[in-house]
Amino acid sequence: MAYNIGVLGLGTVGAGTVDILQNPEGRHPLLGELNLYRVGVRDVNKPRNVQLSPELLTTDLEAIVTDEAVDIVVELIGGLEPARSLILQAIAHGKHVVTANKAVISRYGEEIFEAANAAGVYVMLEAAVGGGIPVIKPLKEALGVNRIQSVIGIINGTTNYILSRMQAEGSDFGDVLADAQSLGYAEADPTADVDGLDAADKMAILAALAFGGRIKREEIFCDGIRHVSAADISYAEKLGFRIKLLAIASRETPQTETDRLQIRVHPTLVPHSHPLASVNGVYNAILVEGDPLGPVMFYGQGAGAGPTASAVVSDIVSIGAILKTETEPVPHPLLSCPHQHYCTLTPIEEINTRFYVRLMAQDVPKVIGHLGMAFGDRGVSLESVVQIGFHEGLAEIVIVTHETPEGSFRDALEDVKKLDAIASIPSTIRVLS
Ligand SMILES: NC(=O)C1=CN([C@@H]2O[C@H](COP(=O)(O)OP(=O)(O)OC[C@H]3O[C@@H](n4cnc5c(N)ncnc54)[C@H](OP(=O)(O)O)[C@@H]3O)[C@@H](O)[C@H]2O)C=CC1
Ligand SMILES: N[C@@H](CC=O)C(=O)O
Ligand code: NA
Prior knowledge:
Layout: E1 3-8, H1 12-22, E2 34-40, E3 57-58, H2 61-66, E4 72-75, H3 83-92, E5 96-99, H4 102-119, E6 123-124, H5 136-140, E7 147-154, H6 157-169, H7 173-182, H8 191-194, H9 197-211, E8 221-222, H10 230-239, E9 241-251, E10 261-271, E11 283-291, E12 294-301, H11 305-325, E13 352-362, H12 367-377, E14 382-391, E15 394-401, E16 404-405, H13 406-417, E17 422-431
Parallel strand pairs: 1-2, 1-4, 2-3, 4-5, 5-6, 8-10, 10-17
Antiparallel strand pairs: 7-9, 7-11, 9-10, 11-12, 13-15, 13-16, 13-17, 14-15
Helix pairs in contact: 1-11, 3-4, 4-9, 6-7, 12-13
Bound molecules: NADPH dihydro-nicotinamide-adenine-dinucleotide phosphate, ligand LTNE7NMQ and sodium ion.
Family: Belongs to the homoserine dehydrogenase family.
EC number: 1.1.1.3
InterPro entries: ACT-like_dom_sf, ACT_dom, Asp/hSer_DH_NAD-bd, HDH, HDH_cat, HDH_CS, NAD(P)-bd_dom_sf
């Protein structure tokens, strides 16, 4: 029996997906039962990276998601609309859906999964987080019996590629971003990558699976890498850290009655000895800490045509396997999404973090003492204070704090700004505890 696949989108991931579907030899035998039936695009005349017979291509995406012959719709157009409406239309027409679209799932997951559960169809999204790395399915299945304490990840390939190149070559941010775009890693609007929004979308999905409740995407604190300079990368290195864009989700400890979660995305100083410090380029890694399993890390290519398509097609094959064995598929308790409640997130001001601060100060007596007092008065204790340079008559000072509630740190920083000797504070970056 063959299953008809309707693919929406033939860009980086769409072309990678079609390439696997057209070349099943040496792969899982079920691939031989998948029939590429239609491919929806914006422009049928655009040159493509894959060879397709022209009659498969159409610009009428609605016709694909409503076509009786289509069994599985694969949404790879990206963006919020028309992706959301097409997914919902496909579900309403009884199609199973595979998507790589974390933006849609993290914002409209409730609507989409409720519709899918009611219609008795699957919505699979392995490609949406960590590209080709299997992480969604392991969280649903193999790790399902663990009580998850934390999920920490490098889950945006574009920013990791940029930071790694800046680190290795001292390259300029803008040039490296252009390379990430040409390699197909970046989103259509790379703002989503650079400003941490893509990583926050992905962490909303991971946290929902790990902690068993829905996450309000807009409540996730998110800061991107625009303000990370070559100087900070170099000073961090000297202090024994790499700068990485981390997405962090953890259960608050000690646990309160509300059982709050701490979820945030921001550039972070990661100690050289930490396993995430050596994850470079387009590689992603997700470190999960569970009880009783302990730490487990998922590592691989988080973006790009082939790796992402690997996850897309494995989801298609999983659905194909279900269709083969069940005449009337009912939501499988391990593969469907049964969450009903929303998790409560801790406001960023209440989260305890260490901070790296770089300041420019007049080189006058007592300046270090005044800095120590300003932080100390707000209860922020300092782990190290180092004068690292001297530019245009100003001393460049780097401070690393001990763990402190972010709100206290922000108050202290306001006081520091008012000190006569402080000319500017070019950067503050959180440090992994
Ligand atoms: N690139 C990557 O490495 C990864 C991407 N993803 C996700 O995969 C999805 C696709 O990304 P990617 O392949 O990079 O995107 P691209 O921009 O490369 O491709 C998008 C495709 O969708 C088509 N398309 C877009 N809008 C419409 C529309 N309104 N009507 C018809 N066709 C449309 C485009 O058509 P046309 O070609 O004619 O312009 C194009 O073929 C996104 O959700 C992205 O977040 C997930 C993991 C990794
Ligand atoms: N733009 C994303 C693509 C994969 O999700 C990234 O860079 O990680
Ligand atoms: Na994945």
